[in-house]
Amino acid sequence: MRVYSDTSLLRKMRMFRGFLAVCVCAAALGGCALNKIADGPAPDIYVLTPATSLPGEDLSRSSAQLLVDEFKAAAVIDTARIVFQPSVNEVKYYARARWADRAPNMIQDLLVATLQNSGRFAAVARANSELMGDYMLMGDIRSFAAVEEEGRTQVRILLLVQLVRANDRAIAASRSFSANVAPMGSGMKAVVAAYDAALRQVLDEISVWTHANTPKAPRAAIAPGTRDHGGAMILPAPRATLPEDEEDY
Questions:
Q1: pLDDT (tens digit, 9 = 90+) per residue, 78-118?
Q2: Pairing status of strand 152-165 against strand 171-181
Q3: How far apart are CA 52 and CA 116, in angstroms?
Q4: Which of 10-24, 129-143, 184-198, 233-247 has the highest mean pLDDT?
Q5: Residue 94: is it exposed, middle or buried by C-beta count within 10 angstroms (0-12/13-18/19+)?
Q6: Which residues make beta-bridge pairs with 148?
Q7: First to last CA, the chain
Q8: What is the pLDDT of residue 248?
Q9: Which pTM value belongs to this model?
Q10: In this structure, are residues 212 and 135 in contact, taking their beta carbons and an 8 Å threshold?
Q11: What's phi and psi for 134, nearest 5 deg?
Q12: Rounded CA separation 224/202 (Å)
């Protein structure tokens, strides 16, 4: 049987008490840190809105079923923080201000809503919704920032968009869309309003362009007595009238 001396036992007890003291201190410091975070001011959360414009002169409905993929973006844009570029080679973020979602995910949702609002397409959904489609919209977010140039701030949005056929993954069309809008006033709300106006302009242009580059549904498929997507009533085709001497009996 092994016997411990009193000196050895006391030494082990002291070490154990020291270990407990360290744990208590660490817990206290952690609690202080959490309290500090909880007591800090919460950031202001902002959202943007989809375009809601109606179709223009071309009221034909596209037969295409569209899927919208999440656009790719650099790490400085792929965030919920609101970007501010004081110079070409410098990127900062507005303090205490956030988007409600990451910028690429937010733009994807707003583009889906814009295409649906237009009434130009047979169906529109997110690409990750496990639905089948005829075409997919994908691309890159090249700029999504408030930029300062010559002492003036303006929101600059630049999207490179590709319309891809789903059956063979071939690019049917490709184009860049951009908008520059200066804030009307000072403060964060004015900056967000400029973001909103610039993005709505870009999304509406993408909707028109996509409609022009996808196949159209025949107007005969719209039943008489209903209204087309421009609100006009579809009337039955007029019955042909034969000359009196050739009237059918």
A1: 999 999 999 989 999 999 999 999 999 999 999 999 999 99
A2: antiparallel
A3: 9
A4: 184-198
A5: middle
A6: 153
A7: 126
A8: 44
A9: 0.72
A10: no
A11: -85, -35
A12: 35
